[in-house]
């Protein structure tokens, strides 16, 4: 049946209007706003790109020469920052370029907190007090030392000869170590490993706040199970054995009349945050080190003075190990820093409009040849040997965030990653290590995850046949742990 010419004419007219509106999308922008980048597919192109490529979509768009540019999705604006200079400016404007609304959205959408709990976050000083407690408990000092030595001496149980899948081993080891170090020996974490990692895997979908049971079924189920298990933990009074961070958070919550149900809801945030970046980081460190015989030899020479128990304070005197850690973070720590524009803000010559979202894709900053040189995409364990903290910040290198939202757990992550890697490198040979690719980097991820696991054979190194590893952190030392066999 032939199509009606009138219908064809109407359809062509509508498509022509839509195409014209799409091409004129920048007309609604203020002339001082960052220049717009249009999608190839009108109106929904950016949405399709984000769904398909996730964080990689920002990498694709960042081939533009503009240091800051705008994406328009219907009436919403996203400003993308790809220049180190503008990253520094963004972090300075913390009063109007703020992360706080995303914290509330996380509690409401991802954790599923009820309205009365969300109201405490929005209308009281609860969140400020929690941030103060977190920074205090995780700053360098006796509280952090106690947490770190507990983490490392649980990890030491896994420093034994074995045939294993490396990523799975690290995932289990660090999750259980976090559970014992933070919550004490009688904690529910060993039975919740899959639930914690399922939540992180679909965090971006959980943040949307609707249809979670359909689009993020495992993550939604995991959050409910974790909440229930930790309500029982608090009901039993087991937090008396927790570290200062957990005990302090509970005291603050109760002061705001938040009950054990609310505490259980919050606990997923503490369970996944300390481990879901450090596990892939340690995986990448070990695979890159053991795939390079010269690097392995040089690190063993540098680390030889550490001894056993391994004193983690001495890790600061291991520049090649630290440089290797930083280089892995440069290549693999590729989450997006995000900010909400709470008021019209001038960023150098650009106008940022209230209600927009800012995205700072670290993958773009960390692999730009204009910043890091022609080998920017390659691993170079010695790259950071001649770069101090100021020089790295000038390059937009912010693996732990920056400004007012600098990650409070950065000292914990440094010690638990490098302490374990140092003992592993000193005490063990490993067969099967190789450089492999990474998974699609989802929105919500920090560190890139490997595309698959690696089957490895771990054997004691000559001279370390009888070693039972333990750690000393800031003068804190637990008894030598019983090691898995």
Automatic annotation (TrEMBL):
Domain of life assignment: Eukaryota
Keywords: Heme, Iron, Metal-binding, Signal
Stored InterPro entries: CYP450_monoxygenase_sec-met, Cyt_P450, Cyt_P450_E_grp-IV, Cyt_P450_sf
Pfam families assigned: p450
Co-factor(s): heme
Family, similarity comment: Belongs to the cytochrome P450 family.
Protein name, entry field: Cytochrome P450
């Amino acid at each position: 049946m032939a199509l009606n010419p009138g219908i064809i004419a109407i359809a062509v007219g509508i498509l022509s209007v839509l195409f014209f509106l799409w091409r004129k999308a920048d007309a609604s922008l203020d002339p001082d706003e960052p220049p717009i980048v249009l999608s190839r597919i009108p109106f929904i192109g950016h949405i399709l790109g984000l769904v398909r490529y996730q964080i990689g979509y920002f990498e694709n768009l960042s081939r533009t020469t503009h240091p800051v540019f705008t994406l328009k999705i219907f009436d919403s604006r996203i400003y993308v920052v790809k220049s180190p200079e503008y990253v520094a400016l963004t972090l300075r404007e913390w009063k109007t370029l703020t992360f706080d609304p995303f914290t509330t959205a996380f509690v409401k959408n991802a954790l599923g907190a009820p309205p009365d709990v969300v109201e405490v976050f929005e209308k009281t000083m609860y969140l400020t007090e929690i941030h103060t407690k977190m920074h205090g408990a995780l700053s360098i000092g006796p509280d952090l030392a106690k947490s770190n030595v507990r983490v490392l001496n649980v990890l030491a149980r896994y420093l034994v000869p074995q045939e294993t899948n490396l990523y799975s081993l690290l995932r289990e080891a660090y999750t259980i170590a976090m559970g014992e170090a933070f919550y004490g020996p009688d904690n529910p974490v060993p039975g919740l490993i899959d639930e914690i990692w399922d939540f992180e895997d679909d965090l971006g979908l959980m943040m949307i706040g609707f249809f979670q049971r359909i689009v993020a079924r495992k993550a939604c189920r995991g959050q409910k199970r974790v909440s229930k298990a930790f309500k029982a933990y608090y009901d039993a009074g087991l937090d008396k054995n927790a570290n200062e961070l957990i005990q302090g958070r509970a005291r603050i919550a109760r002061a705001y009349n938040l009950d054990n149900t609310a505490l259980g809801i919050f606990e997923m945030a503490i369970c996944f945050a300390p481990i879901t970046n450090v596990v892939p980081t340690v995986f990448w460190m070990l695979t890159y080190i053991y795939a390079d015989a010269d690097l392995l030899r040089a690190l063993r020479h540098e680390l030889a003075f550490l001894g056993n128990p391994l004193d983690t304070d001495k890790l600061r005197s291991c520049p090649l190990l630290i440089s290797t850690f930083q280089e892995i973070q440069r290549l693999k720590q590729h989450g997006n820093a995000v900010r909400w524009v709470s008021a019209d803000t001038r960023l150098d010559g650009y106008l940022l409009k209230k209600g927009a979202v800012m995205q700072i894709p670290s993958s773009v900053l960390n692999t730009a040849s204009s910043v890091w040189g022609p080998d920017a995409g390659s691993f170079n364990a010695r790259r950071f040997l001649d770069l101090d903290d100021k020089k790295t910040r000038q390059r937009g290198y912010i693996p732990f965030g920056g400004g007012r939202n600098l990650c409070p757990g950065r000292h914990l992550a440094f010690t638990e990653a490098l302490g374990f890697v140092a003992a592993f490198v000193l005490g063990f040979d490993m067969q099967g290590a190789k450089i492999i690719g990474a998974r699609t980097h989802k929105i919500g991820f920090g560190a890139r995850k490997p595309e698959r696991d690696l089957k490895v054979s771990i054997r004691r190194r000559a001279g370390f046949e009888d070693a039972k590893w333990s750690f000393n952190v800031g003068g804190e030392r637990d008894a030598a742990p019983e090691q898995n066999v």
